[in-house]
Amino acid sequence: MPPPADIAANGAALAEPPQRLPAGAHTGDRLWNALLGVFGGAVLLVVGVIVLELVKVSRPVMAVGATRFLLERDWNPVVDSFGALPFIYGTLVTSTLAIVVALPVSVGLALFLSEMGPPRLRPVVSFAIEILAAIPSVVYGLWGLFVLVPWLRSTVEPFLQSTLGFLPLFQGPTIGLGFLAAGLILAVMILPTVSSVTNEVLKTVPASLREGALALGATRWEAIRIAVLPYARPGILGAAILGLGRALGETMAVTMVIGNSPEIHASLFAAGYSLPAVIANEFAETVTDVHTGALAGLALVLFGISLVLNSLARILVQLVSRGPMRGAAQ
Amino acid sequence: MKKILIAFAALAFAGATARAADTLLVTGAGATFPFPLYSKWFSDYNKKHPDLQFNYQSIGSGGGIKQITGKTVDFGASDAPMTDEQMAKASGIIHIPTVLGAVVVTYNAPMQSLKLTPETLSGIFLGKITKWNDPALAKDNAGVKLPDTAITVAHRSDGSGTTNIFTDYLSKVSPEWKEKVGKGTAVKWPVGLGGKGNEGVTGLVKSTPGAIGYVELAYAKQNKLPTSTLKNQEGVFVQPSLEATSEAAAGVEMPADFRVSITNASGKTAYPIAGFTYLLVYKDQGDKAKGEALVNFLWWAIHEGQTSAAPLDYAPLPKPVAAMVEKTLQSMTVQGKPAQLAATR
Question: Which residues of A touch B86 (CB under 8 A)?
Answer without folding.
Answer: 287
